[in-house]
Each structure stands twice: as C-alpha cells, then as structure tokens.
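User: I'm curious what two different proteins look like when written out as structure tokens. Can you demonstrate?

Assistant: Sure. I'll show them one after the other, since each token string lines up with its own sequence. Here's the first protein:
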Amino acid sequence: MLRRFGVLMLGAVAAIAASRVQAQTPEPFFKGRTISIVCFSGPGGPYDTYSRLLARHLGKHIEGQPAVVVRNMPGAGGITAARHIAEVAARDGTVIGSLSRTLIYEPLLGANAARIDYSKMGWLGSMGQSTAVYVSWHTSRIKTVQDLFVNDLLIAGTGAGSETTVVSSALNGILGTKLKLIHGYDGSPAAMKALESGEVDGGFPTMEALKTTRPDWIREKKINFLFQARQLPDPELPGVPTANSLARTDLQRQSLDFVFPRDVIGRPFLTPPGVPAAQLKALQVAFAATMADPELLADAAKINVPIDLTTGEDLAKVIADAYATPRSVIDHVRQFIPKE
C-alpha cells in the first residue's frame, strides 16, 4: 500500500512539474503580432502584387501565425521606403521590406544620399527572377535596338533613384543609346499609362508587369521589344538581344555585368539590420516554405505571376559579389548616374 501510495505521489509530482514547465514555455514570438511588408511602390505595380501575394500566405508558415499586411510607402524612387526600413522600422522581425533592385546599388553608384549599407540587412530571399525590357510603342519610329543609337526614345521617369532612371542613364553612358527620360511620373503604373496614351513612346516594364496588367500589348503586338536588361536571355523572348550582347569593349562588358545581375535579384525581400537571429531565421524558413505553398502557387498562376525562389543566403551572395566589383568599373558606371 505504501509503495502504491509512493508511486501515486511521484506521478502527481511529475504531473505538477510537467504542467509548470508547460506554463513556463514561452509563447512563439510572433503570436498575436502583425508583420508589415513595407512596399516602396504604390498599389497596382508588380512589386505591390508580389508583396500582397506574400502577405496572403506567409503568416501560416510562421510559428504563432501572425497577421501580415502590406504598407505602401512610395516616394523618391524607393528611397523613402528604404530609409524607413533602415532607420525607423522596428528591428524585431515585425517589419519586412520590398525594395527595388536598383536601391541595393545606391551606396555604390551614389545616385542619392540614402547612405544605407545593404550588406547589413537581413535577406529573406526573392520571389522570382525578373525580365525588364525596353519597348517602344508600335507607332514609334524606334523599331529595333539599333534605332536607339540614332533617335531618342522618350521614357517616363519615376524618380532619380528609380530603376528606370539609373539603368537608362547607365546605358546611355556605357553604350551611347538615346534613352530620354521625361520625369514626374509616380511609379510604373503611371509610366505604363503614359506610354499607352502617347505621352511617351517607350518604356522599361518587366515581363511580369506586362503579363499581369497589359497582356493585350503582347498579344496584339502593340509594343516592339528592343532589348532585355538581363545577363542571360529570357527563353520567352527569342531573338530579343540582351543589353550585355551590345557591348563592344571589355570595359563596356564589365560595366554591364555590374549593372545587370538584377534578373537574379528579382523581387527581393529583406528585414532591417539588427533583427535577432532567431526571428530572422524563422522568417527565412517561412519565406522559403511559402514559395512552395500550393495555395500561393495557385494564386500566382491565376494572375500570371511567376514564382522562382532565390534563397536569402544566395541573394546575400549575389549582393556581396556586386559590392566586390572593381572600383574602376564602379566609377566608370557611376559617372553616368544622376546625382539628384
């Protein structure tokens, strides 16, 4: 009887101890919290589309299943959002940034005064590779890339730090193209409207944006594809030259290799610097899992948005390689970029 009583007592003590341990187990950090995705562009653009797609599915892959919302913060070609993420946003994993590929090069090229060290950011990864293309309207006298060395192509500019401005200015300087920027347009949706209305006769959209917002332009051949801003050609654009193929000298080739790893960087997502390792790792794992989520892939297919994961680790390496470009090459490109 005493032995049985002792066993029962030991069981009761063990049960109490277990309940105390369970009570002391901390709840997941993200439980009950809201994660904000700060998107540098306004509603309707390709970066906004990717951000909202991510927001719909990311939370279920994070322990604690936090709510995820998109906060649009356009301005200065993305510099406004970049500064907020680097200088103001909470550094606990509750803020994620969706930034333009061009902004990652800003500290090297000196196009603006943001002074952000992107090597210190927490990289979650990219949702997809991107194919940016220079196009002309079907009524334009610019029909092929060779015409760009003879006649001006008017393109809507979206800010000094925007990808359109930085890349177009670099190409004009490196290759001698005649891409003429007309500034004052608020983001890519406004730039595409300007092209459609005839305010300009050229543009620098992505294939993703064309497929999702202007598929009739492709189907009805309303645009001429001049060249693609990629290192490797997009299989969907046979016969359309890459920018790198236009290089005639070693310096031009090196300069273009520096300017165009952007197809791999694609649609990058990051956290502010200084996010604790546990929270950052949780977000990186969740990001990768979300890219393989059948529900996200089905949603993406419905709106013609391609998903192609670049992990946070791989993305960080691509950026590190860009920052390791010889200073002489960077300086050559930098001289062509607007400083204001």
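Here's a second, unrelated protein for contrast:
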Amino acid sequence: MYDIIIIGAGPAGMTAAIYARRASKSVLVLEALTYGGQIINTPDIENYPVAAHISGFEFATKVYEQAEALGAEFVFEKAVGITDSGTCKKVKTTENEYECKAVIIATGSANRKLGIEGEDGLVGRGVSYCATCDGAFYRGKTVAVAGGGNTALEDALYLADLAEKVYIVHRRDSFRGDETTVNTLKQRSNVEFVYNSNVTKLIADKRLTAIEVTDKLTGETREIPVDGLFVAIGRVPENRGFAQLITLDDAGYISAGEDCLTNVPGIFAAGDGRTKDVRQLVTAASDGAVAATAAVRFVASLE
C-alpha cells in the first residue's frame, strides 16, 4: 500500500509528488499519457519565477526528473475510478488496481478545441489557448480571439494592450460575458467584432497566416490575415471517472477551495481540475504543495 497516490503528472501532480516524497511518504503517480500536462505544448514560458525563458517541455522534464530522483514512482496508466473504505482507498486504472491511504486528483482540464483541420499542428505556431501565457509573443501584431464568454473578452482586452489589431470572432450576435467588458472593448480603436461567425479554416505556411470565418446567417466566408489565434471557447475538466465519489460543480470541476480539500476525507484536488479563478503554471505548483501537505497530514493522522 502506498501512502499517497497522485492521479496526473502535470505541474500540480509532480509538485505534489516532490513535497510528499520530501516528507518521506511513499508516492505513486499515475498518468494516462506523458508527464507535463498542457504546459508541455508551450514553446516558451516567460511568467514563471526564476526561469525567464524555458520551454514547456524542458520545464516539465526538470520537474519530472526532480520528483523521480526523490523516489516518486511513475506508472503510465489511465485512472478510471476511486473507491473509498476510510483508511484504504483503491485507485482503479485501465490495467490495474492500486491501494493507498490518500489520493490527490490532479488530472487538470483540457482546452476545448475548435475541431478544425490543422489545429493541433499549429499549437505554438500561431494557435494558442492562453492569452496571458503567449500574448507577449504577439506584441505589435494582428491576432484574433475565438469565443464569446468572459475568458474570451478578457483575453481580447489583454491582447488589445499588446497587439496592433484584435479581432473577436463570436458565433452569436451578442456576448455571454460581462457587458462592462464588452463596452470597454468597444472603446478600443484596435478591436473589431466579427459577429454571427465561426472560424472554419486555418491558413498556414509553417505558421498561421490567416483564418477563414464563415457567417452563420449568410454562409459567406471571409479571410482575415492574422499572426495568431487565441481559442477561448471553454475547458473540459477530466474528472468524469470520479463523479460518483467526489462532488463536482456544474461545469465538472472538483468542488475544492484553496485548501484543496474535497468532500471525501483523504482525497484532495490540485491544479486546473478544481474550482478556481486563476489557472496558471504557478498556481498549479501552489496547489500541488498545498494538497501534498494536506495529504501528508492526513496520512500521519492514520498512524
């Protein structure tokens, strides 16, 4: 039996592994794909303390190597469920079942994609899902934001201070986000609204050079030259396998505050998969430290 099982090897999960191992607890990290999570697709990280410039892959590799060197065990299997019997919790994967005293769920969330041809291949080459992460690379350039909620509007406002021109492409004739933000954007001379339209094609020559948008009402298409496209149409938390045990909010995120506590004693949530306002690399690492500290305290209470 392990002291702590961590589900997810993103920044939150691997940070939790480091803290748990430094507390001399046995740790198993389960990961469905590869270590790193979403950050592994980021070509250049500029907003993490100490490392002014580091690729997402290099950052993730360094954290992984640190956790492994401390004795954390990594197994690449997808966790599909948890059962709780108090002092013993069982984590079931697609291949095996593992026992532990405490669980940290750090499965994160995935960006909801447009689902059009070439999208995946252009991530980091003109397509981004995080304006605060990548916006600085488009200073003085032309960008577009796809979406109509608060995230899209806030991204557009952030980019309007950096880019020469910002297009906001929304599939409806009005926005779901705050009207005050919409009004602020309307005052910006470098912001243009493209209503009742969807991004239907990405045009690229190694990097994104333009987007095609299609008017939903008329069917007419328009090609807009851009250097970057920021997709802000929501995120999809990866928590469905735990819904029968852990309380989720209406959007599918684990209901846990800054203390990372869930409704089940001994099960904790860290990273982008829990309810939170700021989903950044630094807050994921913070969650990992908080959750691991709480899990270590819980394990100690059983001894």
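A detail about the second structure: The chain has a mean pLDDT of 94.
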